[in-house]
Amino acid sequence: MADAFKNVIAQSLECPVCLNTFTDPKILSCSHTYCKSCLDNLLECHGNDQMLRCPVCKAETQVPNQEVSKLPASLALKSLIEDVKNQYQFCTNCISEDKPQAVVYCQDCGMYLCITCHNKHSQWQNFISHEVLAMSEILSGKVSVRRYRKCRKHPKEDEECFCSDCRRFACFRCVVMEHTKEGHRVIEAAVYESSLMKSIEDLKSKADEKLSCFQKYVDFIDEQKGHVSNVQKQCTDDINKAFEESVRQLTKKKETLIGEVKGKTEGVEKELNEMKKSAQEHIIHLTTIADVVTNRTKVPSDMDALAAHDTLCQDLQEALKQEDPDYIQPMQSRKKVKNVSFKRDVGMGGIALGRIVNAVAKNIALPTKESMSAMAGTPGGSMAVGCCTGGVEIFSADGQLQQIFLQHVKICGVGFLSDDRCVILDDSNNITLYTPEYTKLDAMFETLSHDESGFADLTVDSDDQIYVSYWESKKIQVFSPAGGEAVREIPCDKYEPQQITSYNDHLITKSDDTVRLIDQQGVVKYKLAKLGDDLFPAVSQGNTILIATLRYDVGLVSIDEYTNELKHVQNLVNDYKIENHETRWHYLQPYRSGEIAFCTPDRLYIFP
Questions:
Q1: Cα separations (Å) of 259 from 235, 255, 263?
Q2: Domain named RING-type: which ranges (predicted)?
Q3: CATH superfamily for domain 363-607
Q4: Is residue 545 left, alpha or beta, with left meaning phi > 0 and alpha meaning psi from -120 to 50?
Q5: pLDDT band at 157 (very low <50, low <70, confident <90, very high)
Q6: Which CATH code for domain 1-87?
Q7: 153 band by pLDDT with thresholds 50, 70 and 90
Q8: pTM of the model as a whole
Q9: How far apart are CA 207 and CA 291, in angstroms?
Q10: Rounded to an integer, what distance in angstroms lies between the CA atom of residue 306 and that of residue 149?
Q11: CA 602-604-607 angle, 5° bins
């Protein structure tokens, strides 16, 4: 009876979170007690919050300045723990009342043994393989005793069963008396323990995967920061070299230029730092709560420990719902300064030093002269340029001509479906579908003819709907990729939809000097106009709107980035000189890798 009582006391001295004997026990406002280190970990899981939620009853305790050490200590519990540690353990095998002091503990027998019993125990063949712990190691804390659960109502009975509905262990007698009613699901304690340990292992595995995912994201952000830092360093080095060759009067100019470089890069560094900080905070949060839940050597046994375990597992499950990081955002931030470089002013008079410029675009002559009529990104990340005299030309992001196909078809529009089929609009306004190998398919589309509607343009949205805009008819027809009649029409009130681009659930239309963002009913949501200039819209990889402004009188093109409300964000290309600018038909389209293509009737310009 005394041994059973000691076992009950030992269980009462266990922290419900770590399942070890309390160390520096602290009391919450709800009267539940935990180790100080366990409370520190729980508080860290909630970031900067000064409210600590009890894992057992979920009541909240305020922790001023996040200092758990200032919570009241359980002095009585600390004293009891010391008394238990300092109390001699007597042999539990000897029959006599005057029992000698124990020198070892057998983990397999669950008994403390004196020197005489230990000698007999070690000589029996069946007991040779038992795990025996020295009392000196137990008292020093180097090893832990594996205790056997005893029923608190029937101290001589082992808790061999577990009730899933009551969330508690029970002996066989308790099961018969209290857990036989409908709704009670009783299983063997060993089966529950095995299932619980597997659940803990699964949670740890998922936590490790999520931690690895976010660590890779942090490493990737560091890589992007390295690119940004290299840009800043290269510009600064070039500026300093030019400065060293100049006179003292250039000091002010040098500082101005370096400040300009920092102005272009520091904002990007700040963005990347914020992304990194957010990811690292999630790593800390996930690591702490995963360690609390999964780094344990024993299974929770009493109701408080089980309640604490359930709460912590719920917290970990919530943390695991965090979406995986989006690598596009840091890459897009880095690309904001990708093209920044320093250009020295050679042969200039006065104290000119140089200026910060964007990198020079690639200038590629199209194989088919004066015939560009359409442009679209390919599924493989290249750029397709359609020609009104026949053929589609494919260019890589570095300007290499990769392929020419459909040379017998006069192209007025080109697009690609999600399954890589190619959509072609010819000069008679007929739509034809081709396989990824450019074999013609049988689908037929009832479009308006060129005679009744004039010129037309084509785009494909993310749902594989095909849009055809008609200049003279001033409307847009929408087709299913299955072919047949148009599923609906979108009116264009009093303007010609010369070029169209799909954008989320909307369309972007271009009419000479005006760009409009319209919904699926044709209602104009936002409009941008630049009198005297021609505007050419596209959608960036970051889902913003790009607009190229061409000044025909001087042949200069600028490319700017806008929000979904056509509000200006930043200038990407400023007054770039193009050749043969008199023809008033051009196209703008970004590569999937981030480069921006601007196409004239006979040349392709690729801006990095």
A1: 11, 6, 6
A2: 15-58
A3: TolB, C-terminal domain (2.120.10.30)
A4: beta
A5: confident
A6: 3.30.40.10
A7: confident
A8: 0.49
A9: 9
A10: 14
A11: 155
